[in-house]
Amino acid sequence: MIEEINKNLEHLSLERIKEILPEYIHKTSKNPPPLSESLNYLLNEEITFKNDRASLGIIKAANFPFRKTLDDYDFSFQPSVSENQIRELSNLSFIENHENIVFIGNSGVGKTHLAVALGIEAAKHRNSVYFITCHNLMTKLNKAQKENRLDKQLQHLAQYKVLIIDEIGYLPVDHQGSNLFFQLIARRYMNKSTIVTTNMPFSRWGEVFSDNTLASAVLDRLLHYSHIIRITGNSYRIKDKIVESDSRSNEYNE
Ligand SMILES: Nc1ncnc2c1ncn2[C@@H]1O[C@H](COP(=O)(O)OP(=O)(O)OP(=O)(O)O)[C@@H](O)[C@H]1O
Ligand SMILES: [Mg+2]
């Protein structure tokens, strides 16, 4: 009998049930629960297994530079970030509402960390996510244009439920690049969520995109339905150095 069950489970690709069934039958043999309870338990195990596998696939394909979560973020180090606001965003209603998120602040304050953490949360709930730096995005779009497949590339990038564009402002974007960037943002506007990180105040995006009009058009669409998270604290990367130098300067003061 168990052999036939195994064959059927395989046929239906119910791998997790196949894996745990022998142990489950053994464990419950003395006091078998009602059939509905057993069925419910086994099906839930299968669903969890399939969800986890799918999420992991999305996370692997998302191209994250590292895997860090909200629990890895020390909110007490960065009081300018409202933990409540970030936790609320992690409920992911921003994806359903096609809203954008902009992390703005100096180097090392955790913009990429928080963007990745929200991306991982989105992936865990089986939303397609892709992470790319602004510089790599420009390379990708320019190459696609040269190879006469811009429309396909834009279509591909426009379909992600969440697109994370990291490091806007670190390198200038030329006029042609700005045009391509605008086309992508315009396609995603009111349709899909985009998370961006930047060190540049919005008033200087004209410099970044080498064109005030295009920069305004990009900002208009990006900010219309958006959550703006301004982070004003110190860099986490050099926090120990700051503490060290603080304690050293205390030593010197004594
Ligand atoms: N508040 C924090 N708690 C824990 N880790 C943090 C915190 N802020 C930053 N980090 C860690 O510090 C490092 C730098 O953070 P991150 O890369 O997110 O900075 P950033 O704001 O994107 O900087 P940049 O503008 O230079 O790219 C990462 O390893 C990140 O995980
Ligand atoms: Mg960063």
Describe it for me?
The protein is built from 12 helices and 5 strands. It has helices at residues 2-11, 15-28, 35-61, 83-89, 93-96, 111-124, 134-146, 150-158, 175-188, 205-208, 212-224, 239-253; strands spanning 100-105, 129-133, 162-168, 193-198, 226-231. Helix 3 packs antiparallel against helix 6 (111-124) and helix 8 packs across helix 9 (175-188). The chain is elongated, with a radius of gyration of 24 Å. 26% of the residues are buried. Mean pLDDT is 94; it is low at 249-254. Magnesium ion is lined by residues 111-112, 166-167, 197.
Structural class: alpha/beta
Q: Helix fraction?
A: 55-70%
The strand count comes to 5
String of helices and strands:
HHHHHEHEHHEHEHHEH
Number of helices: 12
**Could you tell me which ligands this complex binds, including any ions or cofactors?**
adenosine-5'-triphosphate, magnesium ion
Average pLDDT metric: 94
Shape: elongated
Quickly list its features.
disordered C terminus, 57% helix, alpha/beta, 254 residues, five-stranded parallel sheet, 12 helices, single chain
What's the arrangement of secondary structure elements?
Elements: H1 2-11, H2 15-28, H3 35-61, H4 83-89, H5 93-96, E1 100-105, H6 111-124, E2 129-133, H7 134-146, H8 150-158, E3 162-168, H9 175-188, E4 193-198, H10 205-208, H11 212-224, E5 226-231, H12 239-253
